[in-house]
Amino acid sequence: MSAKAISEQTGKEFLYKYICTTAAVQNRFRYASVTSETDWERLKQEHPWLLTERLVVKPDQLIKRRGKLGLVGINLDLQGVQDWLIARLMRETTVGKAKGILKNFLIEPFVPHAQEDEFYLCIYATREGDHVLFHHEGGVEVGDVDTKAQKLMVAVDDKLSEDQVTKQLLTYVPEDKKEVLASFIVGLFNLYEDLYFTYLEINPLVVTQDGVHILDMAAKIDATADYICKAKWGDVEFPPPFGREACPEEAYIADLDAKSGASLKLTLLNPRGRIWTMVAGGGASVVYSDTICDLGGVDELANYGEYSGAPSEQQTYDYAKTILSLMTREKHSEGKVLIIGGSIANFTNVAATFKGIVRAIKDYQGPLKEHEVTIFVRRGGPNYQEGLRVMGEVGKTTGIPIHVFGTETHMTAIVGMALGHQPIPNQPPMDAHTANFLLNASNNAMTPATTRTASFSEHRAANESSPAKKSKAGLPADSLHSILWPLKNVATGDWK
């Protein structure tokens, strides 16, 4: 599952198109999108109700609690909406720790109602099934719904009935609204399942004598279901979270991914960060990112992504050069590190993928040296010895510090080295087999320098190690030794 957030407009469009319920859903398709390029005269022609009704305006950029942040204009006429937007459209604002530009707004009809007409409704997916949360007091001040709401869990492949909803969720709802709400909730749950939503929240859900009004909505869908839902979804867009602008490099990698049987993913988190990753495998990408955050590198983590599924040399080259291009645009006072990591591959030809990365490193050797980039490599799998040899050779020929490790080193150990928590050994011990990080083959086994060494960029004595860089988090180099050093030391008692 790949749960991705969609805009409020997209979510409401899906709901208005495909919900099946006896409840009268009001204001279907009555919304207008506004950006800095909006032609207001044309907008009035396309949505004549803008001229006759009271309106609500709010940003549609995956921002929660907009009401509390003062980002909702209520009960305005069209001129009032335009005046309200002048102070906010294309202006920078802060939401929590995120800063971003308000670019997209949504205008909808204003719905007069009383506080007792507001309800809270949420459906979300877990491994066990889908959970439905309902609270009879919705709105801006709904509070902690996890503790206050009535809850109902629908197991996988089970169906939701109106009787279940009435008995388990609508206990505190006035009798005259139970039938309408039960029908709507069942219809919404069926829509949630049919269109592969993973999260769907409506707050407030307003029920008046006229019917049901969806005032605010937040939703995520399972992006991997695109081939199933394409006919209903159409060309759905997944906007970036507020505060993070979509960049063309992300779109480029997404296009490569769509045209390939392999998996190529890239999300830019902090373009000015000093810690960059190029990780093989979706699971490994999570492990490396978590380890970086655990060791105090969260503020400097520049990107998240992965390449897997046996990409070709050319595909890996295109992926690598995109990351190298991004990381060599701005200098960092402490230099930068690139972590090329992965576990032990099952069928990916490590030598072929590394040759693509090596080509990219050669192409960017000038900028990499200028930006003081140090590269840490750890990989295993088919032909990994050749891949590591090729990676080591490019360190020799270009003069770029490249520290290379195989399966004898625990996969996250290079993170501790890159962040300065752990010294960099000159020559890692030779692995006897793929499980060597659990079994101690020999305390003194070494890989000959001609085949693999921890650093190919400079000559050192065989028993010398590189001093660890000072951790930005201020931790001593050995304080997290027990976390990251190869697990074989723990299993065999060979701890130093």
What does this structure look like?
The chain is built from 16 helices and 21 strands. It has helices at residues 8-18, 40-46, 78-86, 145-148, 162-168, 175-194, 226-233, 248-258, 282-294, 313-327, 350-363, 365-370, 384-398, 413-418, 481-484, 487-492, and strands at residues 3-6, 32-34, 55-59, 73-76, 92-95, 98-101, 105-109, 118-125, 129-135, 150-155, 197-208, 211-214, 217-222, 263-268, 275-277, 303-308, 336-340, 373-378, 402-405, 424-425, 465-466. A hairpin with a 2-residue loop joins strand 5 and strand 6 (98-101). Helix 5 packs across helix 6 and helix 11 packs parallel to helix 13 (384-398). The chain is elongated, with a radius of gyration of 28 Å. Residues 429-464 and 467-496 have low confidence and may be disordered.
Quick summary of this structure?
The protein is α+β, with helices and mostly antiparallel strands and 496 residues long. It has helices at residues 8-18, 40-46, 78-86, 145-148, 162-168, 175-194, 226-233, 248-258, 282-294, 313-327, 350-363, 365-370, 384-398, 413-418, 481-484, 487-492, and strands at residues 3-6, 32-34, 55-59, 73-76, 92-95, 98-101, 105-109, 118-125, 129-135, 150-155, 197-208, 211-214, 217-222, 263-268, 275-277, 303-308, 336-340, 373-378, 402-405, 424-425, 465-466.
